[in-house]
Design goal:
six-stranded mixed sheet, alpha/beta
Length: 312
């Protein structure tokens, strides 16, 4: 009996491995068809992913006199909260507006009209809300409507993971109606084949952390109860806007190459074409997927922890 159970378990694992290998092979063939055989322009190849940000101040160090037995750290009160940022990029380095999902009201899941009316939302940011501050099928459907035009002539290719909201019939139907072909990354391989995971999310989060710390340096005042003042939703919108603006196109293009979606970045192709016209022009390329002047922050834990004020 034990032998039969062991053999069945081993056979099951083998079958799962073979299925994953087949799924990966089919995905790579699809990518080759899109970028190679069909010679699709990189601007029509899009990658989308959502990432969660934990809202709680996370300075790793604090100042205290030498020799004291207890070190008091002033932190904002309350439970840790989260918001979600959805990012979408194209193979030629273009960026869709960053989609921020805040936690809305308990009953409706929506931010009130009063709060939304007070927010100043930059052009490179969109604001949504749900009960949990997480990406769901309703937000996915709304994002698709805002991101893709109804009369798209040339087919667009949207590369995404198997997140539940991406698999909903309503999203797939809406994408098809707007001439967007959804291509799913094999399960468990987003770290290999998703450009945002390969080389964009880390610089973006490093920029976000830097923006928060710069804000904190200028705002060390305490509340009446002795806590650090929390950033508002407006502050976090500004953090995300600045962090997203600081991700440069070359970083995005390099990430598509690193994820094996494109063979080479478009800026390299453009420089090669220029060299044909002018052989004396020097060629200078950079293939680093790390943001300029980002320092060592990219190598740190990419999770961000903050706490924010509901003042708006």
């Amino acid at each position: 009996m034990f032998c039969q159970a062991f053999l069945f378990s081993k056979f099951k694992r083998l079958a799962e491995d073979l299925f994953l290998q087949l799924e990966e092979h089919v995905f790579m063939e699809r990518v080759e068809e899109i970028s190679g055989v069909n010679n699709t322009h990189p601007s029509r190849i899009i990658n989308f992913d959502q990432t969660s940000v934990l809202l709680q101040n996370t300075y790793g160090k604090t100042l205290s006199p030498i020799g004291v037995k207890q070190v008091h750290v002033i932190q904002p009160p309350g439970e840790k909260e989260r918001f979600t940022v959805g990012l979408a990029v194209t193979g030629d380095g273009q960026k869709f507006p960053a989609a921020i999902v805040f936690k809305g009201g308990v009953k409706t899941g929506q931010l009130s009209a009063n709060i939304l009316g007070k927010l100043k939302i930059p052009d490179n940011v969109r604001v949504f809300s749900t009960r949990t501050a997480w990406w769901n099928s309703r937000i996915d459907h709304e994002w698709i409507k805002q991101s893709f035009e109804e009369d798209t002539q040339n087919t667009l290719y949207l590369i995404r993971d198997h997140f539940a909201a991406h698999l909903k019939f309503e999203s797939r139907e809406l994408l098809e109606s707007r001439n967007v072909d959804q291509v799913f990354i094999p399960r468990g391989l987003t770290g290999t084949y998703q450009p945002l995971d390969v080389g964009i999310n880390a610089p973006f989060k490093a920029n976000l952390k830097r923006a928060y710390h710069e804000w904190r340096k200028e705002r060390a005042e305490l509340t009446g109860k002795g806590y650090l003042r929390k950033p508002s939703r407006q502050d976090f919108i500004d953090f995300v806007s600045q962090a997203w603006a600081d991700v440069n196109p070359e970083t995005i293009e390099n990430a598509f190459v690193g994820a094996q979606i494109l063979p080479e970045p478009t800026y390299m192709i453009a420089n090669e074409q220029t060299s044909v016209e002018n052989d004396e022009a020097p060629l200078e390329f950079s293939f680093s997927s790390i943001e300029e002047n980002s320092g060592d922050e990219v190598a740190e834990d990419s999770s961000l922890e903050y706490s924010f004020s509901t003042d708006y």
